[in-house]
Amino acid sequence: MKSVIKSVIRWSATLGVVGSTIIGTTTMGALEVLALPEQQILQKLGPVPMFTITDNKGAPLVASVPDQKDKSGVAGVFINRQDAQAFIDRLKQKNPELAKNVRVVPVSLAEVYKLEQTNKKKPNSPNFAFVPGQQQVDAAKTLLQQSGQKPEQFKGTPLFVAKAGKEKGYLTIKQADQQVIPFFFNKTELQAMLERFKKQKPDLASTIEIQVVNLEGVLQAMQTRNDQGLSQIVLVPPKESIDFVRSLQPAAPNQPAKKP
Hints:
Layout: H1 2-15, E1 22-26, H2 38-45, E2 49-55, E3 62-63, E4 74-78, H3 81-94, H4 96-99, E5 102-108, H5 109-119, E6 127-131, H6 134-146, E7 158-164, E8 169-175, E9 178-184, H7 187-200, E10 209-214, H8 215-224, E11 233-236, H9 239-247
Parallel strand pairs: 4-6, 9-11
Antiparallel strand pairs: 1-8, 2-4, 2-5, 3-4, 7-8, 7-10, 8-9
Helix pairs in contact: 2-5
C-alpha cells in the first residue's frame, strides 16, 4: 500500500491535471499500433490506483467461473472504491460469514499488471478482471451511439480522450516540460478540462471530439506493438481515487491524521 500512496502523491504533484496548461494537439498512430518497453509500462501504471477485495491474509477474493477448464477463477479489480465496497455490502447479505473476513484494499495498476504477467506462467493461478463503473460504461456507449457505432459492441473498461483541430490531433497538456496526452477514466473530468481548452482556444471549440477506447486494449497494445508514440499517453484515474489514497498518507509530526 505504501508504494501506491507514494506513486499517487508523486503523480499528482507532477501532473496536476486540474491546473495544467493545455498546450495544443498532437497526432500519432492508431492505438492498435502502439507499444512501450516493460519498464515504461510499469512507470505509467504505477500511479493509477485500483481496488481489490482481499481476505484477512491479503489474498484476493477469487470467484469460480462455470465451465472454466483450469478452475483458476477470477479476481475482480475495481476502478472505483465505492463499487468495491458495494460488492462487500452485497456479499454481507449473501454470505455474511465470508464478508466479515474481507476488505477493500487499494493496489496500483502496475502491481495488478505484474501479477497478471506472473500468473500466466503458473497453472491454475487466478485471472484478473477489471470492473468499471456503470456510469462510465453508459457514457462510453452513448458516445459510440452518437458517432453512429453500435454501443453494444463496447466491451471492457472505458478510457476517454479528446481530439481537436482540423487534423483531429489528441489534446495535450504539459507535464515535466513534455507534451502528454491524458486518457481519463472519468468522462466528466475530461469535460472539465475541455471547458478550459475552449477558453484558451475558442477557435477550436467546435472541433472538439471525445473518443472512447478500452483499458484492456491499451494494455495489450503496450505489450505487443512497436511504436514509441504511446510514450505520450498518461492514464488519469478518477479524482476520488487519488484523494482517497492520498488520505491514507501518514500525517506529518504534530499534524492531525487525514481522514479517508
